[in-house]
């Protein structure tokens, strides 16, 4: 019986040593993967598997579509981004011109009001001159706004045609 007990104790110590060794290996494995828990490790393993699958799908697509077509796609995507930037820039300029036009309209309205208040004397002729001057500025700003508006419209049309052309290939 004493021998059985000694064997059981040895077996228990062996199992405990194995358990400690397994825990140590698990900690080393988690540390190597940069995780703290088994759930994080499994999540990273799933992500790695998904990444591998996507890379495999990319290789299959690359083989099917050919290098030239994918290269063209990437070029078109970059050009589309550039056109979007240009469009944004033009829209900002148009918005600035609208603000200027509104400000000039306000100035014109003030001038018209001043003219109506001071219809006689030197100030009338001076204000009349100022009125015509601001009216000319407003007309010039309106023409400039129209040019930008037409440019934006043409750019939008070009982008749409480019997208249609690109995706029809």
Short description:
The chain is mainly α and 169 residues long.
What brief labels describe this structure?
169 residues, mainly alpha
What's the helix-strand series? HHHH
Shape: elongated
The computed structural class is: mainly alpha
| Average pLDDT, all residues | 85
As a percent range, the share of strand residues is under 5%
Question: How would you explain this protein's 3D organization?
Answer:
The protein has helices at 2-33, 38-65, 67-117, 122-168. Helix 3 (67-117) packs antiparallel against helix 4 (122-168). It has 169 residues and is an all-alpha fold. It has a domain at 67-169. It is elongated, with a radius of gyration of 38 Å. It is built from four helices and no strands.
List the helices and strands and how they pair.
Elements: H1 2-33, H2 38-65, H3 67-117, H4 122-168
